[in-house]
Amino acid sequence: MPFRQIFIVLLSLIAIVGAALFVLSWGDDEPVDSAPGPAETADSTAGTITTTSSTTTTTTIVPVTTSIPVACGAADTPADSTTSTTTTATTTVAGDGTGDETANPDEVLVPTLGTNSSLSTVGLDEVTFGLTVNQARRAAGTEFNACEPVSDCYRIIPEVAPEGISFVVSNGTIERVDIVGDSPIRTVSGAGIGTTAERLDELFGERLERVDLGGGAVDVIFVPVSENDAQFRVAFTTVDGVVETMRAGRLPLVLEDDPCAA
């Protein structure tokens, strides 16, 4: 074969091979579809990478706890009612096993606990610490319902009274009262839920002791100067400087977070 023809054939082969390689390289440059991943955004203030995905993040806010069980709130009954009846599924407590359980079925009870009732170191109005349940029933002019099984220590609520009142019964007698929620109940000096810590200082001064509970909560405890009241306290639990709950009672139950804990 003449040299000229061989040269033309070689050029043709080189052209064909080059065209094939060009086609292959063009196909490799095509984009490949893939599943979208999470988007990443730069946080310029923190210098970190924040990954955003379809997962929802839920923030749980933990409320400030009190010593009062959720199911133990005073019945929503007008404080000016003249008679009381059992309207809840809780147990009506007429006595305490100390010989004071006898109640006259014909007895007319006139409620005494109202929006103007006063908390003191010795009790709530005429319901004073040391009374049996039946004595407290007569003093309050209303029946009491047990929030939990009757035992050596349990909590009761009055049927006819402002909301947020509960009493602790220990060994058969009333030993503590708690005031929670939006209760209008105040101390004799006018302190109550919503009062500021600064106002407590103005009212009681050096007779106050403080216990830091953490998380912005502080127990501000009134310590009486009278020897007759030495075993009693009034405690205000403040959150961020404002009274959220308060309680009064005899030591040591009045200072316990859960007075009936085993």
CATH architecture of the domain at 91-255: Sandwich
The gross shape turns out to be: elongated
Rg calculated over all Cα atoms:
37 Å
Helix-strand topology string: HEEEEEEHEEEEEHEEEE
> What average pLDDT do the residues reach?
75
CATH topology of the domain at 91-255: protein yfey like fold
Share of helix, binned:
10-25%
> Low-confidence spans: pLDDT under 50, at least 5 residues?
22-67, 73-90
Query: Tally of extended strands?
Result: 15
What is the strand arrangement across the widest sheet? 3-7-8-9-10-15-14-13-12
The biggest beta sheet reads:
9 strands, antiparallel
- Distance between the first and last residues' Cα: 113 Å
- Based on helices, strands and strand pairing, what is the structural class? alpha+beta
Number of helices: 3
Write down the CATH class of the domain at 91-255: Mainly Beta
- Percent of sequence in beta strands: 25-35%
Task: Walk me through the structure.
This protein has 262 residues and is α+β, with helices and mostly antiparallel strands. It has a domain at 91-255: protein yfey like fold. It has helices at residues 3-28, 133-140, 197-204, and strands spanning 39-43, 48-52, 91-93, 118-120, 123-124, 127-128, 144-146, 153-158, 165-170, 173-179, 186-187, 208-214, 217-222, 232-239, 242-250. A nine-stranded antiparallel beta sheet has the order 3-7-8-9-10-15-14-13-12, with helices on one face. A four-stranded mixed beta sheet has the order 6-5-4-11. A two-stranded antiparallel ribbon has the order 1-2. A hairpin with a 2-residue loop joins strand 14 (232-239) and strand 15 (242-250). It is elongated and about 140 Å long. The N and C termini lie far apart (113 Å).
